[in-house]
Amino acid sequence: MDGITGVQPVFDEDLLHKLDKSARQYCKFKGNVFPGSQPVSMDTENIKFIQTRPYRVSWKADGTRDNNFFKVHNLRFVQRDDLDKHIVNTLLDGEMVIDKHQGMSYPRYLVYDIVRINDVDVSTHAFYPHRLQYIENEIIKPRHSAIMGGKIDKSKEPFSIRAKIFYPVEKAKSFLSEKFSNQLGHEPDGLIFQPSEDPYKAGQCIEVLKWKPPSHNSVDFRLKIALETGEGILRRKVGQLFVGGYDPPFATMRCTRDIKELDNKIIECRLENDNWVFMRERTDKSFPNRVETAWSVYNSIKNPITKEFLLDFIERYRYRSDDDMMPPPPRPSNRR
Length: 336
What we know:
- The protein contains eight helices and 18 strands.
- By secondary structure, the chain is α+β, with helices and mostly antiparallel strands.
- Strand 17 (266-272) and strand 18 form a beta hairpin.
- The termini are far apart.
- It catalyses: a 5'-end diphospho-ribonucleoside in mRNA + GTP + H(+) = a 5'-end (5'-triphosphoguanosine)-ribonucleoside in mRNA + diphosphate.
């Protein structure tokens, strides 16, 4: 939320506890980490899910799953049946992006899932079409009606609200085109594959898949600069790489000039010839990836899914319903 005016972090401890408790209850999540649904990296094993069940696909934006709470000024979500009333007890899942257009920046919140609306649990309903329809009918359309009726002034909102569009899985190719990337406004970071018929699942969800080009696969670590000593070993500094939920170092790396001043910082690394290589400091993150995410990314790096393999797999092996596999009806005869 850095750089977005009209957005303030919530510091009140009682309110933070109440909000956090509500979010976890709505998600039916009992863990201590971020309760939202988190995808796993696609690999040569889990890609087979696309063969056994229907999926929807959309582009993946670069970013982090965040459990901070903010007060947003001048942003309203109105009820469908009464545009003068605000919705209550609602939990949306989405991502904040900054779109660039003609040198200007436009923050937008893209809603891609919904857990609860007006105190009604919809998390058990199918992602497609039901939860996507709730986003459109209960969030987007009422806001549009209120804007057109002068009840919401978009110019005063810190950011806009949009529904993220998901298409049938066979449309994945269109999201990887240069034309789509140029039109998007922000940098795409791969693809998200969401099972159509599944309920919302909190925490890591092995059925929700994220795909990145092999060159983009990386892990965010917490770096600790340590002195390596031992019998027969020259004293030297090394970079120890830590992940969440795992006490020992996940890996180590050479203490190069690039990282020697980044002790205790979050850094993004890629795997190159079985060695972790520094890419950049993640100033936008306060915590490293969880150990489950790190292993998932590691496996996808060791067993990469190329763009060509992915698109060929979808074309050949994607799930098809009985209706899809039925032969086309015969053409009408011109004979009378």
